[in-house]
## 1
Amino acid sequence: MANITTNFNDRTIEYEQLLNDFKILLKKNALKFTIQREIILETLYTSDEHLTPESLHNLIQQKFPKLKIGIATVYRTLSLLEESNIVTSLSFGAQGKKYELGAKNHHDHLICTECGSITEFVDEEIEKRQDKIANKLGFNMQDHSMQIYGICKDCQN
Amino acid sequence: MANITTNFNDRTIEYEQLLNDFKILLKKNALKFTIQREIILETLYTSDEHLTPESLHNLIQQKFPKLKIGIATVYRTLSLLEESNIVTSLSFGAQGKKYELGAKNHHDHLICTECGSITEFVDEEIEKRQDKIANKLGFNMQDHSMQIYGICKDCQN
DNA sequence: GTCGCTGCAAAGTCTTTGCAGAGAG
DNA sequence: CTCTCTGCAAAGACTTTGCAGCGAC
């Protein structure tokens, strides 16, 4: 099973916190804390990638070959995590969504149209302008996302 | 059939141009100019909405009940138009894409999470920052898009 | 024990594809 | 005429759902 607490790298504490928050959230809503949910959260946390439901499922099967987690459970858990604002989904031109932990700092994305890689960035200036625009238009902003499409350094060879 | 040239409102000239560009593009690629393609382009132009393939198809069926345009043709034409950079697709959290004419001025989107309505805006400041960021990260920018999610004025009642 | 959760498979969506006939150039 | 395009229906890809047994609390 997911032996999370033995992982004493830099991010361990963050994860413990995340996990704890998740447990509290579950309890509040009379939901159950299951191994599947734990593994999905941990895998999302461990992976720096932006994962599709399918790639997340594959990753989990690699890491825990003995466990059989159904793809349906992955979808159900991702929906739950998204509703709870623990993860965020990104959808690009391509079909399907990618998920990432939303608890990490907010950021925007540079997406390479050649290799599909995603680079993250934050720009305070843009964040501020977004607030202003929403205000000006009487819009009650909940969230925002920005993508820049182009060709990344590596693919410009 | 699509009696486009009799539409003498403000936007007619723009449309004539658009149509012409499209014809040239088709010729260049040894593709054919068909009634279906014309109607799809015209409907996209006439509608101020951001259309899904399905809603576009419905609109066309309303406008031209005698013509039977298959949904497959709508998809195929939208792909063609997108490849040719005549339309742009937006994909949000929800499933499915929405298309809009890309020839119009660039702009970003405010999306209401209640009613799904889309408001457009442009902010020069943000545009500039985006260029800077792409440059700084060695990214060859081709395009970008920004969405602000929240609750629109009307839905805040 | 209860009641939510899971895996499986079946059912839904949305989108793409194969094909024979229609139609643009 | 040729060769692309179209509509139809079938196939695909991705996601959701129903259900019986399992497992957290």
## 2
Amino acid sequence: MHIFSKLFSAFGPQHWWPIKGEYKPRKLSEQDRLEICIGAILTQNTSWKNVEKALDNLHENKLIDLKNLANIKEQKLAELIRCSGYYRQKAKKLKIFAQHVLKFGSLKIFFEQKNLRDNLLSIWGIGPETADSIILYSAEKPVFVIDAYTKRIMSRFGVCKSDVDYHELQGYFHERLPENHKLFNECHALFVELAKRNCKKVPDCSSCPIKKSCQKQI
DNA sequence: GGCCAGGTGTAAA
DNA sequence: TTTACACATGGC
């Protein structure tokens, strides 16, 4: 929590999801939520810039829509998301996801399922990080998302090894932070910002706002 | 021209 | 249970 406050005062709010370019928090529409799910899949091992272009293409073709997504030809979908990389795999993943959710009727109903996380993980193409991103950013439930940046930062702190198990590191946060989806959202985004600015680009940590707490650990 | 990006599934050892 | 590898484009 201490580190979170330091980062927050250094970087300010990060405005990650929900919805690019919008700073005002607002109630998410069903389409917003779907866009977030799609983004979570498209961004797998891919930079967000590439994903944004793919999302624009999907918007233009009315494909931020479960039924249209479920019914479009996989090959056509693949072409539209080509710029996000792994495009054949991801086209398949998006269709499978849409078809799965449609069995429940809507995202809203799907998100009300008791064992949502396990349900997501049972879908081909959805692993722990994508499942947790969907739960946190789209369903707005408190799950801490672990990604490559989080692992890099926390291993720098000496909290874990760089190849730490996903759920082990996730447990570390759940034991220490109050369960609040807005906090988890902001905290994760701040870690990513820190990793981008410092842990990689400035290896000597000279401009890092939490240098002292970090170096103590190293 | 090489390395990496908000991972996941599969198969062999 | 662990490790290796395929999947693929775009930015720096």
